[in-house]
Amino acid sequence: MSLLLNGKPVASKIKAYLKEQFQALETPAKMRLIQVKGDPASDFYVQNIIRNGKKLGAVVELIELSEDATTEELLKIIHDANDDPSVHGIMVQEPLPKHIDVLKVNSTIDPYKDVDSLNPVNLGHIMLGINSLTPATPTAVYATLRYYQIPTQGEHIVIVGRSAVVGKPLASMLLWKTPHTDASVTVLHSRSKQLKELARQADILVSAVGRAGFITEDMIGENTVVIDVGINEQKDADGKVTFVGDVDFNACVGKALAITPVPGGIGTVTTAIMFLNLLRAMKGIQKDNKTIDDFLTFIFVGNYDE
Length: 306
Description:
By secondary structure, this protein is α/β, with parallel strands linked by helices.
């Protein structure tokens, strides 16, 4: 049976540290969360963020816009948040309606307050290995590998999915020259030839394609660590909604060396990382020389130098 890489103990460790840090602050950490209505799934994520903020001792200020809101309206709210010293983190809930200029929105967020790390400046820093805020989901993958002490140095990591939100930044992070990255990385996508054959070569396989059951048993090896980033909604004949990953879990769980569940895996860790980014933003990442790696070492090991 595969080792189950549950996200709960990883998230719990990070949240315990954050709760202690947030409650010790003289000024509450504040995130301005901006949501353009229209995507039902977004409501779940937004309420989850607000609920976690209350538990941790951080303030999450929600601003809701109607589905027909313009790019200019959204940009004004972001500019106000950029200029407000009481706001330490900014997050725009995605997906946004098609008429919104997403690149312009992400480019407007102050890189030092960008807790979801979608500003092109932060994405460029990740590629160059410059200390910055890192995207929540790729960092959750990284944190999970670290927590379970899964080696990455020199290992072949295959990422299925090339989005700017997960696949590309995760590939850049795993190429960093650190003891907990330093991997050989292959990025596959829907147009990749011999996709199954290449996926089977992975020591660690990360799926972020957003297609239920896309990764099948014949795409993994017996010693493969499988990280499932996908969260896909499914409805049965009675209309009951369930969430599943990109991986055919029941088929792969007996074959993979280790595997993350959905739900209860990477998604559980992602919210905790977002609040870790809020803490880093409040501490002033432009002044603080501690990297995400330093923080995770302290949280998981108990000091900044292993």
